[in-house]
Each structure stands twice: as structure tokens, then as C-alpha cells.
Amino acid sequence: SSQLAISTVEVDVFIVDCATGEVQRRLPLPSGLHRTICVAWHTGGGWLASGHDAGTVTVYNTETWQEQWSHSTDTEIDVHSLAWNPDTNRLMAAADRFTTYSAEGDATSYASPTSLGAYSARGEVFWITPERAVVCNSEGPHKVLNVDRGAVESDFSFVRGANSYDWSNGTQQLAAAKQDGSIRVYDPTLRPGPMELRGIGGQVREVKW
């Protein structure tokens, strides 16, 4: 798709046609909310999720652009990260907890930060299999969470202090941009020692596969 979803603090979500640079659609903030923090396209293209303040997640049907569902965890914490599972159509959101939603908007499971050995849910989430997700927490150890069993399978506490993360579905690897300027690449499913890249220079702000 040539469409780009843009979230802006204290403003709506904009859908831009990258071929023309024109704003095709403006999705207003749900009533009573003040911020849009993050957005996530479903890989199949049928849904767009947006994360807001007050722990609220909204999902739009991208054919009609009607709101399909909206759900809140009754918290004042912003939703910081969203991730669709391409195999099961489940959506994971990180706010005051890590909550998993079905495609219909039902909250099917959640994990509190303390159960994962973390201080908060202020981090990024990535699905790596239909039932397993990597939880990258900026203030605590990184975990591989089995969502179906609600159990932590392994942790990667040696990758603390990173500015950015990204998961590659193709190579099944997670890249982390460390605050010391290094980049570490590792595989949470096999858990070998991380591959470390240095010599790039300066502080690395973001990595993307």
C-alpha cells in the first residue's frame, strides 16, 4: 500500500497517499481523549489500530474507515506500542500492562509488568510466533512471553538501555540500538549470545529491518 498513517500528539490520525503527498483522510480522536501515541497497520491491510492516552486502543476498518471497536484499560497511562499478530489477528498493546485483544476487540489476556520482572510497560512489543511475543521494556529486562499460557519463557536482561528495537520476521532476529552506540542482534527463539556491531559512530537513535 502507498498509504501512510501518521499519529501526532494532541491531534488526529492522518492517512496520507505517498504517491501524491495528499491527506486522504483524517481520523478524529475518540471522545474524551487527548493524544494519539502510536499506530499499527495490520499486515493484511484490513485494520488500522491507534493507541491513545487513558490506556485506550481504537481499531478502524480500512475499507470503510469506520471505527470497528475501542477499548480502555481504565488507566491514565498512554498506550506506547501496538503490534498485530499476522497469524492470529490478535493485537497486543503496551500501557500500564501488556494487553492482548482479539480481532473483535475482546481482551483475551494480559500480563502485568511486575509479573514480567519489569517496572513498567513503557516499551515495545513484537510477535515472533502465533502465541509468543517479545516484550522490550525500557526500564527492565526484556522477555519472551507465551501469551496463550501467560508465562515468561526467557529473558534478555543483557540488552538493557536501548533506544530502539525492531524484529525481523524474515530472519527471526531482534535488533537493539544501545545507548552506548553499539547495535546488538540476537534471536530470542534460540537464545545465542548477541551479535554486536560497533564503529558506526555517535549514539544510534533507531534501527529498522
Describe this structure in a few short sentences.
Strands 4-5-6-7 form a four-stranded antiparallel sheet, with no helix packed on it. A four-stranded antiparallel sheet has the order 8-9-10-11, with no helix packed on it. Strands 12-13-14-15 form a four-stranded antiparallel sheet, with no helix packed on it. The chain is built from no helices and 19 strands. It is mostly beta strands.
Question: Could you characterize what this model shows?
Answer:
By secondary structure, the protein is mostly beta strands. It contains no helices and 19 strands. The protein has strands at 3-7, 13-17, 22-27, 36-41, 47-52, 56-61, 67-72, 81-84, 91-94, 98-101, 107-111, 123-127, 132-137, 143-146, 151-155, 162-168, 173-178, 183-186, 195-197. The strands form five sheets. A four-stranded antiparallel β-sheet has the order 4-5-6-7, with no helix packed on it. A four-stranded antiparallel β-sheet has the order 8-9-10-11, with no helix packed on it. A hairpin with a 6-residue loop joins strand 8 and strand 9. The chain is globular, with a radius of gyration of 17 Å. The chain starts with a strand and ends in a 12-residue tail after the last strand.
Could you tell me the number of beta strands?
A: 19
How confident is the prediction overall: mean pLDDT?
Answer: 78
**H and E string:** EEEEEEEEEEEEEEEEEEE
Radius of gyration: 17 Å
Structural class: mainly beta
Number of helices: 0
Molecular shape? globular
Beta-sheet strand percentage?
Answer: over 45%
Distance between the termini: 18 Å
Q: Strand order within the widest sheet?
A: 4-5-6-7
Low-confidence stretches: none
**Sheet with the most strands?**
4 strands, antiparallel
Considering DSSP H and I runs of 4 or more, what fraction of the residues is helical? Answer: under 10%
